[in-house]
Amino acid sequence: LLLGVLGAPALGDPGPLEDVVIDRYYIPKICLREAQMGDFIRYHYNGTFKDGKKFDSSYDRGATVAGVVGVGRLITGMDRGLQGMCVNERRHLIVPPHLGYGSIGVAGLIPPDATLYFDVVMLDIWNKNDKLQITTLSKPERCNRTVENSDFVRYHYNGTLLDGTPFDSSYSKGSTYDTYVGTGWLIKGMDQGLLGMCAGEKRSIIIPPFLAYGEKGYGTVIPPQASLVFSVLLIDFHNPKDGVFLEHLEVPESCKRRAVTGDFVRYHYNGTLMDGTLFDSSYSRNQTYNTYIGKGYIIPGMDQGLQGVCMGEHRRVVIPPHLAYGENGAGDKIPGSAVLIFDVHVIDFHNPEDPVEIETVFRPEGCNVTTRNRDFVRYHYNCSLLDGTRLFSSHDYEKPQEVTLGANKVIEGLNSGLLDMCAGERRVLIIPPHLGHGESGARGVPGSAVLRFEVELISMEEGVPEGYLFIWHGEPPASLYEQMDLNKDGGIPADEFSTFIKTQVAEGKGRLMPSSDPEKVIADMFRNQDRNQDGKITPDELKLKSDEDQEKIHEEL
Hints:
Layout: H1 2-5, E1 21-26, E2 40-48, E3 54-57, H2 58-61, E4 65-68, H3 76-82, E5 90-95, E6 116-126, E7 133-138, E8 152-161, E9 166-169, H4 170-173, E10 177-180, H5 188-193, E11 202-207, E12 228-238, E13 245-250, E14 264-273, E15 278-281, E16 289-292, H6 300-305, E17 314-319, E18 340-350, E19 357-362, E20 376-385, E21 390-393, E22 401-404, H7 412-417, E23 426-431, E24 451-461, E25 470-472, H8 480-484, E26 492-493, H9 494-506, E27 510-512, H10 518-529, E28 536-537, H11 545-551
Antiparallel strand pairs: 1-5, 2-3, 2-4, 2-6, 5-6, 7-11, 8-9, 8-10, 8-12, 11-12, 13-17, 14-15, 14-16, 14-18, 17-18, 19-23, 20-21, 20-22, 20-24, 23-24, 25-27, 26-28
Helix pairs in contact: 9-10
Subcellular location: Endoplasmic reticulum
Organism: Sinosuthora webbiana
Protein name: peptidylprolyl isomerase
């Protein structure tokens, strides 16, 4: 029709137009909807005469035109020319007088029998029967829960008009939009559009005006009767009634004990937001987090979430904000009202009242003699953390470990675990840190670590009382000094002293403190008796331990 009207000059003037002439000079590649009779539309236009003189423009008024198409509220030519248009489509319309203002015109504006030329761009189309249009753009594979009314949500969004004009964005503000759903705090369309979303899901939500800002619009950015398009990414959500949610990822088959209030727990964790953003990790510091549970030292949700864990358990703890850092968040990594997810691996735990746990793996038959404090023992051991991390082993050395029990030469828990053992007996010892290396740990041993020892007693020698290096099996000789002075020269040098003591041991009259180096024990005895350190013992210097205890001056014999 347009070609017919604007055909070659040789054909002559075809005469008056019978219908509106439509030139669709721009058609968008994607046209989801065309304007139909009865639809409500918004559009901009420029109106001119044939000579190009402008008689009207919505642009000059700074406001779009809104109305219903095809029901006689517009001039007939415009009613016909707008039908079938897509959003963002542009048309040139030529409206003959009988489809415009006819032979009357508009006083002072449009003369009678004027042909009108319109340049139109369609901005919005909707219908009173329209419903919310929701398109899921992406959705996580794992979705245990979806948004319901009364939930508190945190989401990012880009908001545009139907023609793509942006009017708002949470991204530009650098923070999520946080609100309750279904309580009237949002426009109706967004209240409905967020329902059923998973954390991490992305949706496109097209909201008709009657579910948005309606006839009034909103400020200068959302015109009246505007359809809105929101691209929404749900970051997280929770309900004020939510408690801690636990997911048992891996529980050891053997779980002899579970953590309770008052226990001290060492655990590793990764802390993330619901969208997977990592905000903290003990692994990155290569150090466990160590704390008491149930005593308020950690956020309430973690206090609850660690109750009942087993050693070695992997557990996921999902904590709503009212049991975490609340509306204020924490630092620059945990936003206000954020749901937190902790993936926890429990290394060990203990209670400050715990004793050494002893499990006898093997005990020889006919076990009549057992270890006591002051006994000298030789034993093999393997030491590890409760998660299986190997620390030390006597098997790495040529000889077994040697120690005098009760002499503060090993940690208290190991000393206790080696008592009342038979030679050949094997035990497993679980030693809490207060009987091990304490809060500070030791070289190769983390602070507050529970230790596991596998011990095997190789041999034992009866000890002597504390403070003694040698004890008599009976009464000591009445003339002790004379017998010790082998050459009767009035002085006892080190070699005479050593010979005398070895003879007493060999004859079963006494015994030395057990040691891997008896010569050193004898040398220490001589040094204690040689009061003036002149290399020999005189009658005045030689004293029995019982006499020294009374005088509280010297060491022992």
